[in-house]
Design a protein that fits this description.
With about 260 residues, this protein is of the alpha+beta class. It has helices at about 45-55, 75-85, 90-100, 105-115, 150-160, 160-180, 185-200, 205-215, 240-250; strands at about 1-10, 20-35, 60-65, 120, 125-130, 135-140, 220-225, 230-235, 255-260. Helix 1 (about 45-55) runs parallel beside helix 2 (about 75-85), helix 1 (about 45-55) runs antiparallel to helix 3 and helix 6 runs antiparallel to helix 7. It is globular and about 50 Å long. About 45% of the residues are buried. Bound molecules: (R)-mevalonate.
Length: about 260
């Protein structure tokens, strides 16, 4: 049984405070689980989900989704295990996300479960959206593991509702521009979102450096997911531009990246 990854285009963190967010599935990255009898190391989170599902066997996890990088690996694990058991996938993923993150908005579960681009708002029905900008997103793995719980707690302690409101406004504008297929405005809004996410202290010197480099060959770049490390996404108007961007960031020690058509 398997589940895919996700990336948040707009609205991470502000989504926790009831603002809209926009996320898309990453079908290129997958996590697969299967039962086996031979003993194999099971981490604490896997044991927790197994406990929820009353799984007694060992679980072998095979995954191309990097762990703790904002691409939804923990929700993908819960969803694939719940699918394996024919359990209530949404409920299991919700409980597992609460255990892992404390106060999850539910966006990871929504996108990974539905495998569709969507506008997510806490407590409301998902709105499916056609994302067809004629461009490419380069997902850059900074190699830095980040804790969603730590990032969400940090934002809570900062208590900057003015920035959260601004991030909410940026998402509203981005939804309009995505519907209009205006890739240039979407890129500008990504930079604007990053400016605000940085004000929430979710970036760092290394991320800032990679984002600056990526922006030589892209329309806009921002963190995706919780920040403090994890992955950066950069919007390019063509594959040629994406390849140039990759060439540049490889010089900065980046090892993993993926290109997704949007
Ligand atoms: C994590 O993928 C996105 C955050 O907004 C947390 C959440 O929505 O639960 C940082």
């Amino acid at each position: 049984m398997q589940a895919i990854a996700k990336m948040i285009l707009f609205g991470e963190h502000s989504v926790v405070y009831g603002k809209k967010a926009l996320a898309i599935p990453i079908k290129e990255l997958k996590l697969k689980v299967k039962k086996q009898k031979e003993k194999i190391y099971q981490n604490e989170h896997l044991e927790y989900i197994k406990g929820l599902l009353n799984i007694k066997e060992y679980i072998k996890v095979k995954s191309t989704i990097p762990i703790s990088r904002g691409l939804g690996s923990s929700a993908a694990l819960a969803i694939s295990l719940a699918r394996l058991e024919g359990a209530d996938v949404e409920e299991i993923s919700k409980l597992s996300e609460i255990k892992a993150h404390g106060n999850p908005s539910g966006i990871d579960t929504a996108v990974i479960l539905n495998e569709k681009a969507l506008i997510f708002e806490k407590g409301k029905n998902n709105i499916y959206l056609d994302v067809d900008l004629g461009g490419y997103i380069v997902i850059i793995d900074t190699g830095i593991m980040s804790s969603t719980k730590e990032a969400v707690d940090m934002v809570k302690n900062l208590n900057r509702m003015d920035i959260i409101d601004e991030l909410g406004n940026i998402t509203e504008k981005a939804i309009i521009k995505i519907k209009e297929k205006d890739i240039y405005s979407v890129g500008k809004l990504m930079n604007k979102a990053q400016f605000n996410l940085r004000k929430l202290k979710l970036s760092n010197t290394f991320l800032d450096k990679i984002i600056k480099k990526a922006n030589y060959n892209s329309l806009g770049t921002k963190i995706t997911g919780s920040g403090l490390g994890g992955c950066i996404i950069s919007l390019c108007k063509s594959k040629t531009q994406a390849k140039k961007l990759i060439k540049n960031i490889l010089k900065e020690g980046i090892e993993n990246y993926w290109i997704v058509k949007v």
